[in-house]
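Q: What does the predicted 3D structure of LysM domain-containing protein look like?
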Amino acid sequence: MISITRLGEGPFTARLLQPQNLVDMGPREFAEGKVGYAEDGRIATYTVAAGDAPFAIGDRFCIYNGLAIPDLNGHAGYEAIQPGEVLVLDPAAVPDFEYVYPY
């Protein structure tokens, strides 16, 4: 699950609320993209393949609410993810990640 918070008037922040190491259960229908890794070997990003869907990407990486992945990556509402787009899966594993509140 992904937590999105804001302290006072500061910027919104996002973090993954589960074990630090995501598990890749392997490509599957609607989740056939490429995995990106942090320097320490943790799963960090995912490059969307044609036909991929957030729920299946979440399922592939054991993320409880895969539908939150687009929100984490700045998509508002049901704005579609696009083939070739690199999605952050674990903000803590991407040092230069800056969450942008999409609403």
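A (community wiki): The structure tokens above were generated from the sequence. The CA atoms of residues 1 and 18 lie 7 Å apart. Helices lie at 54-60, 69-72.
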